[in-house]
Amino acid sequence: MKITTVGIDLAKNVFQVHGVDGCGKAALRKQLKRSQFLLFFSNLPPCLIGMEACGGAHHWARKLQGFGHTVKLIAPQYVKPYVKTNKNDAADAEAICEAVGRPNMRFVAVKTIEQQAVLSVHRARQALVQARTAQANQIRGLMGEFRLAIPKGIANLPKQVPLILEDPVYELPGAFRELITRLLAHFHALDRQVDELEGQIQAWHRNNPVSRKLAQIPGIGPLSASALTAAIGDAKTFKNGRQLAAWLGLVPRHHGTGGKQVLLGISKHGEAYLRTLVIHGSRSAILAAQRRAETDSWLARLMQRRHPNVAAVALANKNVRTVWALLAHDREYQADYAAAA
Length: 341
Known about the structure:
Radius of gyration: 25 Å
Largest sheet: 5 strands, mixed
Shape: globular
Distance between the termini: 52 Å
Number of helices: 13
Number of domains: 3
Structural class: alpha/beta
Strand content: 5-15%
Number of strands: 7
Order of helices and strands: EEEHEHEHHHHHHHHEEHHH
């Protein structure tokens, strides 16, 4: 009996495997330890393997592809409807095996080691930026207890705080001055680490031709380009540019019943970090267009009739669709490109 499709429920040390034959009949139910996993699949004839896109999934997918198997990753929320009974490893593996064979199922592209490494740097940078912001807010809050206000903007903090601490007019206690000095030193340390990680991302961006190509789009800089290049992987996984925009949560949510469709705000599905980068990049592009005093462009006409925040999201949606077109069709960016009728 030849096994054609296998579903794997991944875990840290124990993996549950469920396989079916060409008729869909269960032919394999097995629990494998971590040390047995690769050996078992190296001896299994090539087949279709489905796994949830979770921690370690991309690593195991690359290993199984090396044995000749076709591996597809599925978002966990798309597997849940196929779980028939109570949740356990065997039921999850069976549900994954069922889901991977559906013709309309959406899959996650398997990332390379390089892509995973770049995304790890992005995640670390994001965490450091959040920690830096939290430290700045703590300093502001503590100084606010002494009725000391610092102007808005994170750049004003390292400039204004030392001046306040050195000024005898404020009559701050010595212990408080030492505390703020210590917290400010921590703020500077976080700031240096953010700059170092940004330098790594910039270096990777300069050496990657795909990332450099995406950075030619107005509103997409090195950070956005490198993150999109690493996160999207194979753009042909998405049917069109709208699917990529929907994956990032940049399209309206739909609510319809009785033949009546209502469009709501953007869905905000998918990766919030990527969505934040492209929207902030769009804000920069809007400011640049305003400085140039454009009046006849698509963006200028949009700005005349809609709020700047709405225009920023619309431009981000448009840029993401352009990203898909460049990646899926291997094209170079053209500012005056017009689609054929």
